[in-house]
Amino acid sequence: MADQLRLTVDGRDVLVPAGATILGAAEAAGVEIPTLCHHPLLKPSGACRMCLVEVEGARGLLTACSTPASGGMIVRTRTDQVVAARRTVLELLVSEHPLDCLTCESTGDCRLQDYAYEYSVTGRDVAGLPNTPAADGRQAKLDDSNPFLVRDLNKCILCGRCVRICHEVMGYGAIDFVSRGATTKVTTAFDVPLEESPCVFCGNCLTICPTGALQAKTGRGLGRSFQYDRVRTICTFCGVGCSLDLHVRDGRIIGASAAEGPANRGLVCVKGHFGHDWIQSPDRLTTPLIRAGDGTFRRATWDEALDLVASRLAEIKAAHGPDAIGGLASAKCTNEENYLFQRMMRAAIGTNNVDHCARL
Ligand code: SF4
Ligand code: SF4
Ligand code: SF4
Ligand code: FES
Question: What global pTM score does this model have?
Answer without folding.
Answer: 0.86
